[in-house]
Specification:
2 domains; alpha/beta; Rossmann fold; 7-stranded mixed sheet; 398 residues; single chain; 23 strands; Metallo-beta-lactamase, Chain A; elongated; binds MU-OXO-diiron
């Protein structure tokens, strides 16, 4: 069934949601699906902004045919060439063979790789600041390289203040009945997922996000239309401030996160005891996660949210317990920085995970390691209480 929605003036959302996908990019677990947004402007010329993932192609194409009715499609603006948005380009070209594709030089390099059959299609290659007239709407193009692919760009429509922002300002989570963020309790429904999406998909590219935020600061934005999640028309500054914090690796709040790995429960017990003491000593909220049970993308999101992270880790094969090592590899890949870590190691005969975790963390930027590192021999006991107290006190004061 056709299901498009008006955003403003003659600008429409024509996307859809996939609630069946269990892992985005075959990595990130989805509890509540994901939306793929696509947009249309009906002016003297018609313009489509990105297509959609193949999983919602039926809905997307039905919406596109429905909104255009008997009109032809003049332009397909490609803000992002990743397949969750570009999968339907060839289909759209077959349906509307006179369409002109609009993208930058890199867009068309990637287009030729994904769709070699479209070599002779009409194209307009745009660069920073170029514009395209649709009638009363004039589109201008803002390059957003490495947010999070090199060809990513934003398209701005000055007549309505709509910014088509590609993946930026997106979130995991299906769209329900409303398409606008202000139709939800966004903090309750989407904020954790928006942070998880940012940290894991875009988090590595904070500097590039900063560059495009500086450009966006000079634009009168009334609507932000991302490729995933709801559209922003109210409280835009609040969400941009989240992006400022996330892209500068600034903690959002001062809660403490405890992440432990545990084979048989002894390291878990020590982490639980330390967290209880930390709560009493610091007065702050302390969240505890089992590194084997919680997906690394959630842990990464928590690292983005909080400034202080405590790791409890067994020694395993003379190294770091594998799930913790994987988490630390993600921290490195996503360039975690400006954080304070405290380390506790467990080892029945040769504890080594503390030293090895320290080496990995000290390779990151602006990381503080709280001293001392706590060493557990198999299990914490009452004789360890002075060391545990010193460890907790040092974290609270760090
Ligand atoms: Fe939603 Fe980078 O694709």
């Amino acid at each position: 069934m056709i299901n498009y929605k008006k955003i403003t003036d003659d600008t429409y959302w024509i996307g859809g949601s996939d609630r069946r996908l269990s892992r985005f990019e075959n990595i990130f677990p989805l509890e509540d699906g994901v939306s793929y947004n696509s947009y249309v402007i009906l002016d003297e010329k018609t313009a489509l902004f990105d297509t959609a993932d193949i999983s919602i192609s039926d809905q997307f194409l039905e919406n596109l045919k429905g909104i255009l009715a008997d009109r032809k499609l003049d332009y397909l603006v490609i803000n992002h060439m990743e397949p969750d948005h570009c999968s339907q380009i060839a289909t759209v070209v077959y349906m509307y063979p006179d369409v002109t594709l609009v993208g930058n030089a890199k867009t068309f390099t990637f287009l030729s790789q994904f769709f070699p059959e479209l070599g002779s299609i009409n194209k307009i290659t745009v660069a920073e600041g170029d514009s395209l007239e649709l009638g009363k709407h004039t589109l201008s193009f803002v390059m957003a390289p490495m947010v999070h692919w090199p060809e990513a760009m934003f398209t701005y429509d000055a007549s309505t203040g709509v910014l088509f922002s590609a993946d930026a300002f997106g979130t995991f989570g299906a769209i329900d009945a409303g398409i606008f963020a202000d139709e939800y309790d966004f903090e309750k429904r989407f904020l954790d997922e928006a942070r998880r999406y940012y940290a894991n998909i875009v988090g590595k590219y904070g500097m590039q996000v900063q560059a495009v935020l500086k450009k966006a600061a000079g634009i009168d934005i009334k609507f932000i239309c991302p490729l995933h999640g709801p559209i922003w028309r109210e409280n835009i500054a609040w969400f941009i401030d989240k992006y400022q914090k996330w892209s500068t690796y600034t903690p959002e709040d001062d809660e403490i996160v405890v992440i432990y790995g545990s084979l048989y429960g002894h390291t878990e017990s020590a982490a639980q005891k330390a967290a209880s003491m930390l709560r009493e000593k610091s007065g702050k909220q302390v969240r505890i996660y089992d590194v084997s049970q919680t997906h690394a993308s959630v842990l990464i999101s928590e690292v983005w949210r909080c400034g202080k992270i405590v790791l409890f880790c067994p020694t395993y094969n003379n190294g770091i317990y594998t799930p913790m090592e994987n988490f630390l590899s993600d921290c490195a890949a996503l360039t975690v920085q400006n954080r304070t870590f405290a380390l506790a190691q467990n080892g029945t005969w040769a504890p080594a995970s503390g030293k090895l975790m320290r080496e990995k963390l000290e390779a990151l930027k602006n990381i503080t390691i709280v001293e001392p590192v706590l060493t557990i021999k198999s299990a914490l006991s009452e004789t360890d209480e002075p060391e545990l107290k010193a460890f907790v006190d040092a974290i609270a004061e760090a």
